[in-house]
Design a protein that fits this description.
about 1450 residues; alpha/beta; Rossmann fold; GMP Synthetase, Chain A, domain 3; Non-ribosomal Peptide Synthetase Peptidyl Carrier Protein, Chain A; 8 domains; 7-stranded mixed sheet; 5-stranded mixed sheet; PP-bd_ACP
Length: about 1450
């Protein structure tokens, strides 16, 4: 119920009390047949049934049903015996139903039009022992089992023996089963809904949605196997009304009209489809009606309006309800005002029915918000016959009821509350389909189409007439058949309101929709697109073999039927789809066409199928396809070089060290039945299929190499997560912590499998699945392939079928060798283009920051998510298509303008990744194909957005042509001093993740994607946009050493505002877009300008001071440098980067050093020692560059689990001396990691320190259970360490806090007075001895002096001594402790307190420690706690916990 906290008290009252309080007094303990018997006694001579020329009175119906009931009892029918019948609509059918109930049984109606195979399925599932039918129906039945007793009514009624017409004895009550009705199931197998007597009685007795009485004449029109028949039959017969049976044949509209007039029908139920037809064709025949109920589907507003206008004496009611809640759940008495809205509401819950609109966490959604409808109350079915798992899944415990047996039915219907307590129907959750990876709500498309002029009715389907080719098809019925519906204007209309992937590929115009036996639209009978003239008659068809082949390629990729003159951008195409189309064109025609040609403009040679076919046909074909350099499978062994993409990732991963900048996590919540063994098997089958997933990266002679493992089998790490004691909010927070911890866990490129899978099991049917890959073996496209193939393998394993995926024609190793050659062939053109493109660019974008940029780039980061809604996305896509641009181009243009507004720079360079998969053989391959290219734009002349967009389009298209950006080699062309505080070229990256989206669907599971935060940032800002069904899911990953959270939040708001301004006034000049107020701008620090613009050096006249080597090692290094650089002479003080060095050259350099000196230094050493002189010093002293560790060894001896002491080394030594010699003790201390803290954080938190301490502790003890003890204020840090260990699913055996004062405000006059009374003068002497205030004053003076010294060193540009750095770290640590807010801790806290602190409240500890608090007092004072004799007593007590 925690979710209710987000609702106001008024909303809670409305949603949970006022609008669900529907109780009325009705005969809830009576059975159906008891109520009928009473009605027969009340009005024996009244007509109960009318059928053609036959009539039966209530008394006749009572007597005949009693006789048959006794006969059925003689056949063994008793309480809840299921009796099936296969009968035409007739008086005998009603007699049979009543007889089955009177005998104590439950009836199972079978429709006589049901196909034999489905009948057989139902009979096998139901296992009803008796089947009642007629002789003329025997030939229509399937082969029946011998165990089934067949009763023909012909024989029974012709029999000379009959029972007395008195009610048989029975023991049935209102909780017993009344009937089982089969409905279609999502798996294709029908499911039997079990309805008790009470559900039917609540439907028709003392209810509030319609009038029932002896004056009503009800037409029984619905199929007996459709639950509308329940309303028709019992609404009449349990209230003294007349039930008119429609003849058995399928009636025409005229037949229905005739029956209404002839029998003076007053109450009629029609399905939505039949309602629309009757209103169109037979509205005059409806005039005798007093109440007309319609539903089962969305009602057309024009038809509703027509009824309200022309039938003023008839109450029109929209009836809604699933079979699982006995026919009706909600009803709405429609008024003319309703026709002014977008849809007809389904109304309010009927009497004795409760409804709740909930989110996926079963929490009520606020008024106006969409959610899923859940139903409770007396109409609820028991569940599904013989399907306990499905029953448990769909009929859940009612969290809003005090009755432990109360349940709710999960409808799958999407609805929302209106302010007046009326419910609007929005569609089906299971009418969501996936098209091109996007979840599409078919009802949403239908609703938009319904508003198009001259459209009367519309149905949209996702058809898959060709396996694997799923597409949207719209079926339209016009208001006036004489008016033509032209698909092209309809499509233009839709493009203004819906994203491109929601536009149907075909529009089919029909005179009317086919209906099924229940009167609903028969979606299966709707024709396939090729059977109509819909869109096809408007498109220009291919007219030659080349156009036909080209059209097939376009349709395969775009998922829509295309005319040869439609432009690629008008169809919503993007660069990714263009790449895929042109790779197939290359395969089919042997012609290599740049992507840019396809995207340039509507007049380009590849903008349409016709122009592309013309281009291909008349351009001289290349004599040999090999000239376009296809990728081929060649023997390549298991050890290969890295691709240029992998080299960059490998190098940056070395620099980032323990920061997971290249982790690619995927997180899903799985709810339902999961077979973990088969999921693991499915994942390993995908690993077996793809080389990249079996690749690790060994270092050979100093150079990284791909090493492909012949076999790799991974295990799913399953972690049981117990959240029973947590509230919903606490559980979500705990889950998110687990997700973030796993996402931030780094890979070891040389040893680890670079894919890992973890499963957090929350409950038996609730899991968090995390799959994480390293970017060096995958990319965004690869993750989509991975999920799709896991889905396919798992589905087939579950269904015990063999999956035969097409063999991969090439593997990543083949691509590696091909790409290496391809790069060499194009190296000159690539270098020339990118050198020219970047000449004069600033290496650093001068964005203002919240904190000064650290001297060495840090990778600590976080992420913020935000959403751009569907309406805005639709506007952006329509705008982009109108400009002949792509979604990416518009978004990246807006983002670059935002950067201009923040930085005031007119020359902006950002990075953007592009997938180098321009060969069809690479589309289904997992591997690293993404390369980040620079996009440089200018705003010098204050262009309008339209002009700037044209520039972005040009730059982007050129970039696609030169997508293999050789960053390091280009950098060596420039005169540039390498700065270790940022990455050159760009520090901001924009990503549109428009990769092919595949389904991740596992049978029996509801899958929800979860967000993650890996706590790292590869550069200053990474802006990611991912198209989703409901809009654009966006995130910004940012470096927390530079930016505060609120700054990024503000930037997000500015971006969203900028998009709106651009869409409203695209002609406006960009410098007239004020985003930052003066106050906002003043909050940010100006970024220091870059040293100089990048320029190509003129080496002809350059001179530098040359220093000869002075010893043998320097001469050896000089030879290595000259060999690697191909340059002589090189002096010992010449800078590696000023010589044109880059990371790739660094790899070769350190490989040679390792070969000749035996010293294996990391390549990152070159950033810290970039000259021969500095390198020689490192090698001479054999100094290794290793990370600092916070752990200091106190006593390493013994096999017991170690104790980690969080405080000073001195105290740790003292405490250890009182322990046994075999008790290992280690001290963790911030002063051991001063450089780590000052280099990685401008302002660290306790969370940051704890992460580092845990990382170092694991070097001593890789896994729990851990023992921790801390003194005084360090207790906060120890508490956070224990908290994080628990979050990482490690056990903490012991957490001891020594004299921890949490709540210093308690230490006041009363505290000292109480101690003085209890401890006497010794307490006073103790306070005087330590003179704490004087000590603090002296300490403060010392700190201020040290601060002044630090500033002096900074001004003199002199390295700050370590002792002064320690002062800064201590100051920050105190601030971090003051800012720390402890959260609930799952374990136990052991508190050791001195006598001095015994009067302090320990309530805070008690509230935090979920496993309890143990407090032990040790005589003495706080300041002497770690001195003798107190320390001896403390050690004794600690040992009792450590043994």
């Amino acid at each position: 119920m925690d979710g209710l906290l987000c609702l106001t008290e008024f909303e809670q009252h409305q949603l949970l009390q006022k609008w669900t309080n529907t109780q009325t007094d009705y005969p809830r303990t009576s059975t159906i047949h008891d109520l009928f018997q009473r009605q027969a006694a009340k009005s024996p001579d009244a007509i109960a049934i009318a059928y053609q020329n036959q009539q039966l009175t209530y008394q006749e119906l009572e007597q005949q049903s009693n006789q048959l009931a006794q006969y059925l009892q003689s056949l063994g029918v008793t309480t809840e015996t299921l009796v099936s019948f296969y009968l035409e609509r007739s008086p005998e059918l009603i007699i049979t139903i009543l007889a089955i109930l009177k005998a104590g049984g439950a009836y199972l109606p079978l429709d006589t039009s049901t196909p034999p195979q489905r009948l057989n399925t139902i009979l096998e599932d139901a296992q009803a022992p008796i089947l009642i039918t007629q002789k003329n129906k025997l030939t229509s039945l399937p082969k029946l089992p011998d165990s089934l007793h067949l009763l023909c009514l012909d024989d029974y009624f012709n029999s000379t023996t009959s029972s007395p017409p008195i009610p048989p004895a029975h023991t049935v009550n209102s909780n017993n089963l009344a009937y089982v009705m089969y409905t279609s199931g999502s798996t294709g197998k029908p499911k039997g809904v079990c309805v008790p007597h009470r559900g039917v009685v609540r439907l028709v007795k003392n209810t509030n949605y319609a009038h029932f009485g002896a004056d009503e004449v009800v037409l029984q029109l619905a199929s007996i196997a459709f639950d509308a028949a329940t309303f028709e039959i019992w609404g009449a017969l349990l209230n003294g009304g007349k039930l008119v049976l429609m003849p058995a044949k399928i009636p025409s509209l005229q037949d229905i009209g005739t029956a209404i007039k002839h029998h003076k029908i007053t109450t009629l139920w029609l399905t939505a489809g039949l309602f629309h037809l009757m209103v169109e064709e037979q509205i005059e025949a409806l005039k005798p009606l007093q109440q007309l109920l319609a539903g089962g589907d969305v009602l057309s507003i024009p038809h509703v309006k027509k009824v309200l206008t022309e039938l003023p004496d008839c109450q029109l009611i929209n009836g809604y309800g699933p079979t699982e809640n006995t026919t009706f759940t909600c009803c709405h008495q429609i008024t003319l005002e309703d026709t002014t809205k977008s849809s007809i509401p389904i109304g309010r819950p009927i009497a004795n029915t409760q409804v709740y609109i909930l989110n996926p966490d079963l929490q009520p959604v606020p008024i106006g918000h969409p959610g899923e409808l859940y139903i409770g109350g007396d109409g609820l079915a028991r569940g599904y016959l013989n399907q306990p798992d499905l029953t448990q899944k769909r009929f859940i415990a009612n969290p809003f009821s005090h009755d432990p047996n109360a349940r709710l039915y999960k409808t799958g219907d999407k609805v929302r509350w209106r302010d007046d307590g009326v419910i609007e129907f929005l569609g089906r959750f299971d009418f969501q389909v996936k098209i091109r990876g996007f979840r599409v709500e078919l009802a949403e498309i239908e609703a938009v189409l319904q508003n198009y002029p001259n459209v009367r009715n519309v149905v949209v389907l996702a058809r898959e007439d060709t396996p694997g080719d799923k597409r949207l098809v719209a079926y339209l019925v016009p208001e006036d058949n004489h008016l033509e519906l032209n698909p092209e204007p309809i499509k233009s209309f839709l493009l203004k309101k819906l994203p491109s992937y929601m536009i149907p590929s075909a529009f089919i115009v029909l005179d009317q929709f086919p209906l099924n036996i229940n009167g609903k639209v028969d979606r299966r009978a709707l024709p396939a697109p090729n059977q109509n003239l819909g869109l096809n008659r408007q498109l220009v068809k291919p007219c030659n073999p080349t156009e036909h082949r080209m059209a097939a390629i376009w349709q395969e990729i775009l998922g829509v039927e295309v005319g040869v003159n439609q432009t690629f951008t008008d169809l919503g195409g993007n660069s990714l789809q263009a790449t895929r189309i042109l790779s197939r064109v290359r395969d089919a025609f042997g012609v290599d066409i740049p992507v840019s040609v396809m995207l340039q403009n509507r007049e380009s040679s590849a903008a349409t199928i016709a122009s592309l076919a013309e281009y291909v046909t008349h351009r001289p074909l290349q004599d040999n396809v090999s000239e376009i350099n296809p990728i081929k499978a060649i023997p390549h062994g298991n050890d290969l070089p890295l691709t240029v993409y992998q080299e960059r990732i490998w190098l940056l991963a070395q620099r980032a060290k323990q920061h997971p900048i290249y982790n690619l996590p995927m997180v899903f919540r799985l709810q339902g039945t999961l077979n973990i063994t088969l999921l693991e098997k499915a994942i390993n089958q995908v690993i077996k299929r793809h080389e990249s997933l079996r690749t690790i990266f060994s270092v050979v002679n100093g150079l990284p190499r791909q090493h492909i493992l012949p076999e790799l089998t991974i295990k799913i790490s399953v972690v049981d997560v117990n959240t029973n004691q947590l509230s919903q909010a606490e559980e979500e927070q705990h889950i998110q912590t687990l997700i973030n911890q796993e996402a931030s866990h780094c890979f070891d490129l040389q040893a680890d499998p670079l894919i890992r899978v973890k499963l957090f099991q929350l409950r038996t049917d609730d899991f968090i699945l995390m799959m994480t890959c390293h970017h060096i073996i995958s990319d965004g496209w690869s993750l989509s392939v991975l999920l799709n193939e896991i889905s396919l393998f798992y589905t087939n394993l579950i269904q015990e079928r063999q999956l035969n995926l097409p063999e991969l024609t090439v593997n990543y190793g083949d691509f590696t060798l091909w790409h290496q050659q391809h790069q060499e062939d194009r190296e000159t053109s690539l270098l020339n283009y990118w050198t020219n493109q970047l000449t004069g660019a600033l290496p650093l974008l001068n964005l203002p920051t919240d904190h000064p940029r650290p001297a060495i780039q840090t990778y600590k980061g976080t992420i913020q998510y935000f959403h751009i809604n569907q309406d805005v996305r639709t506007q952006i896509e329509a705008f982009s298509q109108g400009q002949g641009a792509t979604l990416f181009m518009v978004l990246v243009a807006a983002f670059q303008i935002l950067l201009h507004c923040y930085s005031h720079e007119d020359d902006i360079v950002i990075g953007s990744p592009i997938a180098s998969r321009n060969h069809s053989s690479l589309e289904n391959l997992i591997g690293c194909f993404a390369n980040i290219i620079p996009l440089r734009t200018h705003t010098h002349n204050n262009p309008s957005f339209l002009e700037f967009l044209a520039q972005v389009k040009k730059v982007s298209l050129e970039g696609y042509t030169y997508l293999d950006f050789p960053a390091e080699k280009v950098l060596s062309n420039f005169k540039y001093k390498r700065n270790l505080s940022y990455y050159p070229w760009f520090q901001v990256v924009f990503i549109l993740l428009n990769v092919p989206q595949h389904n991740f669907e596992l049978p029996g599971l509801k899958i929800t994607e979860k967000k993650f935060n890996k706590g790292a940032a590869i550069c200053d800002l990474v802006f990611l946009v991912e198209p989703k069904t409901q809009g654009l899911q966006c995130s910004i990953e940012y470096n927390t050493a530079l930016y505060n959270d609120e700054t990024i939040t503000r930037l997000i708001g500015h971006f969203q505002q900028l998009l709106q301004d651009i869409l409203t006034h695209p002609e406006q000049q960009i410098k007239q877009l004020p985003l930052l107020t003066e106050a906002e701008a003043s909050q940010l620090l100006p970024s220091p300008s870059a040293d100089e613009a990048l320029s190509v050096p003129n080496t002809a006249g350059s001179k530098h001071q040359f220093v000869e080597p002075r010893n043998e090692l320097e001469r050896q290094l000089q030879n290595i440098w000259e060999t690697v650089f191909h340059l002589k002479p090189i002096g010992i003080r010449d800078n590696f980067f000023e010589l044109g060095g880059h990371s790739l050259l660094g790899l070769r350099l350190f490989s040679k050093i390792q070969q000749q000196t035996g010293q294996d230094l990391p390549v990152t050493t070159v950033f810290e020692a970039p000259t021969i002189e500095e390198l020689a010093k490192i090698l001479q002293t054999k100094q290794e560059i290793v990370p600092e560790s916070s752990v200091v060894t106190i006593n390493p001896n013994g096999n017991k689990p170690p104790l980690f002491f969080v405080n000073s080394i001195n105290y740790a030594w003292k405490l250890s001396s009182y322990f046994p010699k075999d008790q290992p003790v280690y001290c963790v201390n911030i002063f051991e990691v001063i450089d780590y803290l000052t280099q990685n954080f401008s302002q660290f938190t306790l969370n940051d320190i704890a992460q580092k301490f845990i990382e170092d502790m694991r070097q001593i003890q890789p896994q729990g259970p851990y023992s921790l003890v801390a003194y005084c204020n360090d207790s906060y840090l120890a508490f956070e360490i224990a908290q994080q260990l628990y979050d990482q699913c490690d056990q903490v055996n012991f957490l001891g806090l020594i004299d921890a004062i949490w709540g210093i405000e308690q230490v006041g006059f009363n505290f000292h007075y109480q101690n003085l009374r209890e401890l006497g003068l010794s307490y006073l002497f103790q306070k005087i001895r330590y003179q704490r205030k004087l000590f603090c004053l002296i300490e403060r003076i010392r700190l201020n002096l040290k601060k002044a010294l630090s500033k002096l060193y900074s001004r003199l540009d002199t390295p700050i001594p370590r002792r002064l750095k320690a002062n800064e770290v201590l100051e920050q640590f105190r601030q971090a402790t003051n800012n720390y807010i402890p959260q609930a801790y799952p374990g136990k806290i052991n508190l050791f307190i001195s006598s001095e602190l015994r009067n302090l409240s320990h309530e805070m500890f008690s509230n935090l420690a979920r496993a309890g608090l143990d407090v032990q007092e040790i005589p003495g004072y706080h300041n002497s706690f770690l001195q003798s004799p107190q320390i001896e007593r403390l050690a004794e007590k600690l040992q009792t916990y450590l043994t």
